[in-house]
């Protein structure tokens, strides 16, 4: 694993004033990389995801646990004069601020970028919203489900003859958090070369549209709406889910060489020379003829048997694993998909691991509300 990354941002101070998922996810990644991340929360209630359960582990919901490891918490009411003064002092000491304040709150609390840069001209500010803070949609709440619906994601996801589907996780929030970290790191490079801070604005909608990748580009290039493919692929064949003799198998033939190896592995050398299927372009054109043939082949053996045969032939494939199967697999242990984190009271809790740092270093559990007020004030403000 990338052990050195776990301390790569050590010494940087982050004020995470965001809520729910996109911003907290970005703050968690910075904490994974060694930054000192303090989470600013409303007194008494905190981030609403603290109560987004069940399930809970102790007082904390699994949702909150998923995006707040490695942070410390301080509760501030920015409408309170004393707390607002403390907020300004913390901002003055910070390197990075992540926030998703609502438009009205920004004006009332003087937390716009211009005001913040008067306090700290070197501050990297990353502001997140649903649809941007200017324009016709600026006032709309930024909920992931709505963004998935409006970004083209749901129109391209689900069975061809069924209804549009959302992703199984809040993917628009997640990718916005990832884009936020990229932008923040670029902002730090900007500050290093200029000596000045930066105000970055990201919208969930913008990030979701960019994440449409080849599907979105296909429409931009042709003007033709992409059709829902279910578990198939619009531009690669065969590249979908097939029923085996006892379950399911994902087959991902990504190029013509893999197609040739597949034909040999399944004992169908005739398919390897069939002009209808020689190239991926031809296989896409003759999808309706090829898929029933492949389906009949895969149905003849178990998933385990096909996985062994195709893996030996160098043909990408895989079974459908649920989380219980995944987390009990050798892969999960080798790649640190689950890590043990220590809570302030000394008890331990299992958390999803980070692909950046894996199991390296000590993992701190997400904090209880306002648990770190005194130490934050002491360490940040002396």
* Rough outline: elongated
What is the helix content?
40-55%
**Mean of residue pLDDT values:** 94
| Sequence of secondary-structure elements | EHEEEHEHEHHEHHEHHEEHHHHHEHHEEH
Q: Looking across the biggest beta sheet, what order are the strands in?
A: 5-2-1-6-7-8
Structural class: alpha/beta
Q: Which regions contain 5 or more consecutive residues with pLDDT less than 50?
A: none
Radius of gyration: 25 Å
Give the terminus-to-terminus CA distance: 36 Å
- Tally of DSSP β-strands: 13
Largest sheet: 6 strands, parallel
Q: How many helices?
A: 17
The proportion of strand residues reads 15-25%
In short:
The protein has 17 helices and 13 strands. The protein has 382 residues and is of the alpha/beta class. The strands form four sheets. It has a six-stranded parallel beta sheet, with helices on both faces. It has a three-stranded antiparallel beta sheet with strand order 9-10-11, covered by helices on one side.
Task: Describe the protein's architecture and organization.
This protein has 382 residues and is an alpha/beta fold. It contains 17 helices and 13 strands. It has helices at 22-32, 62-65, 81-93, 103-109, 113-119, 144-150, 171-194, 204-210, 213-222, 256-265, 269-272, 280-285, 287-298, 303-313, 323-327, 330-335, 373-381; strands at 13-17, 36-41, 56-57, 60-61, 71-75, 96-99, 124-129, 198-203, 239-243, 248-252, 317-319, 338-342, 348-352. Helix 1 (22-32) packs across helix 7 (171-194) and helix 7 (171-194) packs across helix 8 (204-210).
